[in-house]
Design a protein that fits this description.
4% strand; homodimer; 8 strands; 793 residues; mainly alpha; 3-stranded antiparallel sheet; 67% helix
């Protein structure tokens, strides 16, 4: 068989596997629902939409539909039962009041590592106290699970992997606790090994959907990366053999006097470290100093393993990650559409042989789903949905509701400046107008950018000089004038609206600087906190970025993809936590830090084995596994990669050569896998943000906002003069301008929030929107939507 | 204006700019051609196709058409004149006989750095000798340019940037040489600064099209990256200010006792180095040892600058590179199609109101274009083109010829085994058949994979033990038996065909090992070269990869994208050359290497300023700029990044703090830009190779090969029994199997070569095939194709 044919076949196979899996998943989903319905023993009737064409939907129907819609909105996929109690239970389950304590207990459980032995110095609790808290957490987790079980069908509940995971983790932890208690009371030594499992709780509760998805994705990417990884290891193994033969018998030594490629395992480790570039060029120098042609070996090695293989890892991870992400998003969109279809079935009415939803039903439903939205916001959404003003909408349009609700629309009440109300004559006098005009002018902004820049230069120079200390007063005064002038010109509530980050930032920094300067001059002694806050005024420099158009675009893109990175932060935390706990169990106390070492042993990190090692020379004693914070900082350093072999050497010397495994596995998992996935995500998100158009939904709602203009005001909300402005800028200056262009008076303005992607899901969906658009929506209808309302209708 | 609108606008602008540029380019191309035609003063007539519908094309017409087709085939875009002499000149220009000396002179010119002062020790020439050679090179370059000028119109010639570049470089080099000569003869000191410009010759000759394209691409990507880069520098500057304020007044010292964040420029440099991770975690330790919360500053810094900004650099480079590449490929495809259209116009005949090309004309043309192809190969291509057996083809189909010629089709003459000819009875006896069957069996391969693996383990263990030395004989004997058995089973010429890399490799390695072992045992002393070759037998391990299906796929992908990376190698060489020459001028002799240092000064790399520095401690003395080879190795180490600040420190200490600029600029250009472009290319190429289908052209020709089967044999080439087999495998084993399945006898077999993408261009075109397919071909017709044949027809 030709190679190209081989490649082809694998592709086909991979494609098939994937499709198979997807199909299996959907089938499973479908079965879940059918089983749920079949095994529903409570008195009630199975409804199809045809059964209740004549009845008006009751309150419970609204509750059920609202549950479906909010499932779709937040991309939940919990198969709840549709009985009255179950829906109520489910509503309660998704409420903040039950979710918040859950998060609290999760954090508490993870935070126990701070106070358990080995604890942060001074924070150690007796073991019974921390175990009591852990028990509390376990009870809470069990309670949450029981709550979940109350509204899901038993068989569905037990077929869900994440529930089983949690149950197993709870049981295992409980057993470990009992064993530990018994052994400790009897005076035997034991380790709390189940602590490594704690992140399982964080991953497997329904609340951490994004995290679980990321994990699932990593698991699958891992399979794809495996063949490349084997080839990579094989390449290192072969090169090590070559190196051993080339350099092993030449009796060379490194610059620290240790033998050079003396045995195979050391050669393997050294060359693995070279892949990470951490010991380049030191590993090459002895051979290079002997003969310059030996450098070719290392250059070839680096090109093949560091550049080619690492790029290919990135390529495979990027490719696989994107593929799996797409599948997951597709499943998620499918679930969303089915939920919306179910909600539609619950509430629809027949009109001209079509099933539709009337405006009143729709508005009532939205009120139930999103009680915090205002009447005008709801009307705006209706206008976007019912484009042809028919008074009702079909199923397809209704499906969009979940996306519409996810778009953050900010309402702003347009008010005149308070001073204009108090003293209109003065405020509108020519002098006042001149001032306001000056503040609006772009040179006003330029001037203060220059001031900030000059201030930064002053900060950079030595601040013990008296003249520079004096200058600080001038700058402070200038900043104060700037803020007061702006407050004079712009309406204060608009100026300090939540989305105007820069105004808040400016004012805060200036106020802190003012307080600091006054405190310093009155009491002539400062605290460290205040010092630090004063230093933060340097950050005002960032405002200059806002002046340059292209920089602002990049900055905005950065800010837009920022929130979605929280998932990655959580992901890496999970790995850090497990590795930190493991490291603490393995290397606790091997290396110690003494702030002012007095004895020779203390200078050697409290361990005589480390004498003369690079670990001690570089003063790495504080990089140890003696508490969770130190361990985390050490893991960050290992993630950055540089000098990781030196850090590892400290623990290899004090324990055993097998300790290298811990560090190599950490590098493989966190650096090669997770960091590559992070880069893949940034790549995808940044390219998308930077080049593509806006999402369909948003541009539709924006178009509507512009199209309607004052339309809603006169027709729908006659008592309010309403304005719909899209172009409200986060920058205070431009905001002011657009305001001054508008007619004065109290009015509402809508704008789409800058932080557009509130959920990672929304961003992901947008990533693959193009492909998903082609997805036939009929598939959704193929899965029947069945629900019971126990005799209320 | 809202931010989203800002983003949009920039996008639109960028898009517009791009399209504008592209249009401008095409317009320019068009104008070039028109001008060329207008200013054609030689007697002749401007032909349109209608002018010569009745005449048969003559030899000169074939020459002209062949020039067009070969332009299209090799993606050349040289606007040659169409007079008889000019075409002859152009043919001569593109011939190997004129191109080869050109490459030779280019290499010679660049290689002068080896013998010019500072030269490789022992290789230094007197300055007049190297300058004489350089003069020779300059004459050759000028000659090549004059040759080019002989067949291009003068105005077109002088409007071409690359010609002007070469002319300027020649003149500047000549001036520099004269100035240097005069000053040296008069005893003044001078530097040959024009040597930095030498890569200009390598880039700007028409032969290095790919390299020039890569350069052009970098120039454009640079513009896109600029805003991110400014933001990145701004971020570092701000963080440096913060660091200075936070740590500057605490009187901390690094582990080497130097002051910690004592002034702004040092802080800036240290934090720039931290972005490259080269001084992590050392730079953080003093502050971390003081207070553990200070680590937060460094963690935030690394997350923002190292992870976020570096990923965004990659994203922007990836995005920009792909975009520009696409445009270039689009232009290239456009040029190709126009060339083919011109060739068609020269040779087409009218049939039923359509202009077509007859089979005989087509075959004659292909014979002129590709004289080395066999008759049967040409027939195969015709069969692929003329799918409906009409005897003629249209313009659209004719255009594909350029791509068809680029597909490497290997012909193999199927022959019976020589032993079968000599002694058919013995060769076909049951014992012989059994042996051959055994060799074909997959367990034969598995067995020798195991043998190689066991051998590798023996190699890895200590080879001074006698038993292991004895074992080497056993392994050698086994390998010899393997090769002999294979030669017995497979036809030798098929076994050693050029595309069977593994067979060549195996045989060579085994022969070398055999010779080595015999030499060692007979004379009991070895040379280093033989030693090294013997070590290479470890590489037989690579053959194991071939056994595993998935690994082979990855390996094949690697091999496929391999050749296209030559462009990147050349690109990086160009940068290395300029930086190396510059570095040699700046830092020559500052650091010296003494293999066996005797005096204390020699131990300090011959420079007392370096006493106690890390540069000396780590024995980096050989990393210097004293000759071009050392400088190149040093630049490779700087590219790998690790310890680059230590390497830089050696030259900063011995010269001036401004020397840091050299190293920072090198890092910015080579690591941030070039390496990211390399990664972007690997990403794109690997993902494509790994996931997409074959190119249209190739699958068409493969389908045809299969479809025709023995078709050609009976119909077209009756005297030869021809077989068309697609599935000939590079692996000897499978090759054998498919052969044994076929009927015996002498016959031709076609297969598409494994190294499918002979030119980078072909790969690039395939990358964007999907998008280019949508491109309307009519645009090509919009550009008129005019040519003159001076009165020959």
């Amino acid at each position: 068989m030709s190679n190209s044919a081989v490649v082809e076949e694998v592709r086909v196979k991979e494609g098939e596997e994937e499709e198979e899996e997807e199909k299996r998943k959907r089938r499973k989903n479908e079965e879940d629902w059918q089983q749920e319905v079949r095994s529903e023993h409570t008195p009630g009737k199975i409804l199809t939409t045809l059964d209740r064409t004549t009845t008006k939907p009751g309150d419970q129907a609204f509750q059920l539909a609202a549950a479906y819609v909010s499932d779709a909105q937040y991309a939940r996929n919990i198969p709840f039962q549709t009985g009255e109690n179950a829906i109520w239970c489910y509503h309660f389950y998704t409420k903040w009041v039950t979710k918040f304590p859950m998060y609290l207990f999760l954090i508490l459980d993870l935070a126990l590592a701070l106070v358990e032995s080995p604890a942060i110095p001074g924070l150690e609790w007796p073991f019974w106290a921390s175990m009591l808290v852990e028990l509390l957490c376990l009870v809470a987790f069990t309670g949450r699970l029981v709550h979940l079980g109350m509204f899901t069908e038993r068989r569905v509940f037990w077929r869900d992997g994440k529930n089983i995971c949690v149950v197993v983790a709870v049981i295992v932890t409980a057993i470990d606790m009992v064993v530990y208690l018994v052994l400790t009371v009897e005076g035997h030594w034991d380790i709390r090994w189940s602590r490594v499992l704690r992140p399982i709780f964080a991953i497997n509760f329904s609340e951490s959907r994004q995290l679980r998805r990321a994990f699932c994705n990593i698991r699958r990417t891992l399979l794809g990366i495996l063949s490349v990884f084997i080839l990579f290891l094989f390449s290192i193994a072969t090169f090590s053999l070559l190196a051993l033969k080339l350099f092993g018998n030449q009796h060379l030594t490194t610059h620290q006097g240790s033998p050079y490629f003396d045995n195979y395992l050391n050669a393997l480790f050294d060359l693995y470290v070279l892949v990470t570039t951490a010991n380049s060029p030191d590993i090459m120098m002895p051979a290079y100093n002997k003969n310059r042609w030996y450098s070719l070996f290392f250059i070839v090695y680096i090109v093949v393993n560091t550049y080619l293989f690492m790029s290919i890892f990135l390529a495979v991870v990027y490719n696989g990650y994107r593929k799996h992400l797409k599948n997951e998003v597709r499943t998620s969109v499918f679930n969303k559409r089915r939920s919306m279809a179910c909600a539609f079935q619950v509430l629809c009415e027949p009109v001209d042989e079509d099933m539709v939803m009337s405006q009143s039903t729709w508005l009532k439903l939205v009120r139930v789903v999103a009680p915090t939205t205002s009447e005008s916001h709801r009307m705006l959404l209706w206008q976007v949905s019912d484009e042809e003003h028919q008074g009702y909408i079909g199923k397809r349009v209704f499906t969009r509701l979940a996306d519409l609700l996810n778009i953050e629309v900010v309402e702003q009440w347009r008010r005149p400046h308070p001073l204009e109300n108090c003293a209109p004559r003065v405020y509108n006098s020519w002098l006042s107008c001149l001032v306001r005009h000056a503040v609006h002018h772009r040179f006003f902004r330029y001037f203060f950018d220059v001031v900030i820049f000059v201030n930064a230069i002053f900060i950079a120079t030595d601040d013990t000089v008296l003249a520079i200390q004096k200058a600080e007063w001038v700058f402070l005064a200038l900043y104060l004038v700037e803020i007061l002038l702006k407050l004079y010109t712009y309406e204060p509530r608009a100026f300090f609206s939540l989305s105007n980050f820069w105004n808040w930032f400016d004012t805060l920094i200036v106020l802190i600087a003012l307080i600091y300067t006054m405190v310093v001059h009155s009491s002539s002694h400062t605290t460290e906190i205040l010092d630090f806050l004063f230093i933060l005024r340097v950050l005002r420099l960032l405002r200059i970025v806002d002046t340059f158009h292209r920089l602002r675009v990049v900055m905005q893109t950065l800010i837009n993809i920022g929130p979605t990175m929280v998932t990655f932060a959580a992901l890496i935390m999970v790995f850090y936590y497990s590795f930190a706990i493991l490291g603490m169990e393995l290397f606790h106390g091997k290396v110690q830090f003494f702030p002012t070492p007095s004895t020779p042993e203390q200078q050697m990190c409290g361990n005589p084995l480390l004498v003369g090692s690079e670990f001690v020379q570089r003063q790495y004693c504080k990089n140890n596994f003696n508490d969770i914070v130190s361990a985390s900082v050490l893991l960050v350093q290992l993630t950055v990669v540089n000098q990781w072999h030196v850090l590892a050497s400290g623990f290899v010397i004090t324990t055993d050569i097998a300790a290298r495994l811990y560090f190599i596995v950490f590098h493989m998992i966190v650096v090669i896998l997770i960091i590559n996935i992070f880069i893949a995500f940034v790549l995808e998100a940044f390219i998308l943000e930077y080049t593509l158009d806006k999402g369909k939904m948003e541009s539709a709602i924006e178009r509507k906002i512009q199209e309607l203009g004052l339309g809603i005001t006169t027709q729908e909300l006659e008592n309010k003069q309403e304005m719909l402005i899209e172009n409200m800028e986060h920058s205070g200056n431009e905001l002011g301008k657009s305001e001054s262009d508008q007619s004065a008076g109290k009015c509402i303005m809508f704008k789409i929030s800058e932080k557009r992607y509130r959920t990672v899901n929304a961003l992901l969906q947008r990533m693959f929107e193009q492909d998903l658009a082609d997805e036939p929506e009929d598939q959704v209808d193929a899965v029947p939507c069945r629900f019971t309302l126990d005799g209320v209708l």
